Description:
- A five-stranded antiparallel beta sheet has the order 1-2-3-5-4.
- α1 (12-34) runs antiparallel to α2.
- It is elongated and about 55 Å long.
- A hairpin with a 7-residue loop joins β2 (109-112) and β3.
- The longest helix is centred in the first third of the chain and has 27 residues, at 39-65.
- The chain is of the alpha+beta class and 173 residues long.
- It has one domain (12-171).
- It starts with 11 loop residues before the first helix and ends in a 7-residue tail after the last strand.
- 41% of the residues lie in helices and 14% in strands.
Amino acid sequence: MMHIFPPPQIDPFEEKRAAEIVALIKCAAKIVQHGVGDEHSRYLNRVLYGDIYRMRCEFARRFGAKRGWILAKTPFALSKLSAQQGVNDHRDEWWNRTYAYHSLLDHPFFYRHPEKPFRPAGIAVHLYGGIPAAAAEIAGHLNIDAVQPMSPSWWYPTQTSLLLFRARPEECP
């Protein structure tokens, strides 16, 4: 017997927040485009980008909380998501020599497990131009997952794609 499941739904909060972020970014761009560089225009942009930053952080916290993770205070290497990392692990060096760092880790948000020792749990990245094929290759090389979650990018929705690098579930203790 075949089971038919409804398609996954995007959280209404995420959809609304993504639309708000896009609207604020477009508003800030118009101020830059039409502003004369006066003090008032610069002040408005600072306020708008402060609002955008706060919205992105709220979105990122909710994204992690839905997975049982917390936002990390410090970044970590992609290979730290792998359960197979060793003391003399040179996989990050290989990756940095082989791929442009920026192309796969643009606008990263780092997540950790909330219990000590606060192990790395995932890295959410926001990529312009879609998800490159190299993402699957590097994930396979590092023995981690690269998935596109059912959540819009919160960096620049409609312009960036969200990609999540995470430890493989079967390897999580």
